[in-house]
Amino acid sequence: MSAAPALVSGVYALFEAAWEIAADLEVFLSSDRPQLDAQARTVLRALGSGATDEAAARERGMSVRTYRRRVVELLVALDADSRFQAGIRAGELGLTRG
């Protein structure tokens, strides 16, 4: 095992970065945490990619109308008023992992 200062500070920086983005355990384990199906998770990832609705729908093999309906369902499930707020909320709940 090495205790070189560069190695230790690198590992510490990785730990700090992971700690900062980690979901609060109480929130993560909360029963209020929405359960997202596979399609909702796909739409959530599409929102995070910054793709237009048209491009995201095409990549997922659905119509733009269906994609937008799924986005609205996601906003409701996350109790969000905007796509940006939905992303923040999903991150807080630990839904953006895996």
Description:
By secondary structure, the protein is an all-alpha fold. Helices cover 66% and strands 0% of the residues. It has six helices and no strands. It has helices spanning 5-21, 25-29, 38-49, 53-59, 64-77, 83-92. It starts with a helix and ends in a 6-residue tail after the last helix. 13% of the residues are buried.
Summarize the structure.
By secondary structure, this protein is an all-alpha fold. It has helices at residues 5-21, 25-29, 38-49, 53-59, 64-77, 83-92. Helix 3 packs across helix 5 (64-77) and helix 4 (53-59) packs across helix 5 (64-77).
Highlighted features:
about 100 residues; mainly alpha; 6 helices; elongated
